[in-house]
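stage 2 :: seqdesign
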C-alpha cells in the first residue's frame, strides 16, 4: 500500500521560503514517480513538479520553473519541495502524489497524501 505524508507547511511572509517533505516508503520511492500539486480555494488542482523513480529526472510545470525545486532524499525516504520567493498567490494546500508512471496532471496519479497548508501573508 502506498502511503504519503506531507509536512512542512505553515505561514510565511512574502519573499520567504519553505521546504515541504513527502514521507513515504523506500519501496514507493524506488518504484513510483512522485509529484507535488497544489490547490487554492475555488481553483483546480495544479501540478508543480514531478520526479522519476528510475533516474531522478525532474519535470516542472512551466509556471513553476525558477522558484520551486523537487528532490529526493533517499536516506530519509522523502521527496522534498523547496519553495523560494513565495508570493501570496502561492497560498494553497500542497499535496504529494504517487503513481507507477510519471505524469504532470492530477488525474494521472492514483495515490495522494492528505495535504499541507501553505499560507503566504504579511
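stage 2 :: out
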Amino acid at each position: 500500500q502506498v502511503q504519503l505524508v506531507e509536512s512542512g507547511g505553515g505561514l510565511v511572509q512574502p519573499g520567504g521560503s519553505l521546504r515541504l517533505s513527502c514521507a513515504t516508503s523506500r519501496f514507493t520511492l524506488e518504484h513510483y514517480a512522485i509529484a507535488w500539486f497544489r490547490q487554492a480555494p475555488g481553483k483546480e488542482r495544479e501540478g508543480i513538479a514531478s520526479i522519476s523513480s528510475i533516474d531522478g529526472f525532474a519535470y516542472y510545470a512551466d509556471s513553476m520553473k525558477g522558484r520551486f525545486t523537487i528532490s529526493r532524499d533517499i536516506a530519509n525516504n522523502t521527496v522534498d519541495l523547496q519553495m523560494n520567493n513565495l508570493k501570496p498567490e502561492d497560498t494553497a494546500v500542497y499535496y504529494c502524489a504517487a503513481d507507477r508512471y510519471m505524469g504532470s496532471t492530477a488525474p494521472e496519479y492514483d495515490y495522494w497524501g492528505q495535504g499541507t497548508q501553505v499560507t503566504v501573508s504579511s
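stage 3 :: structure notes
- The longest strand covers residues 92-99.
- The radius of gyration is 13 Å.
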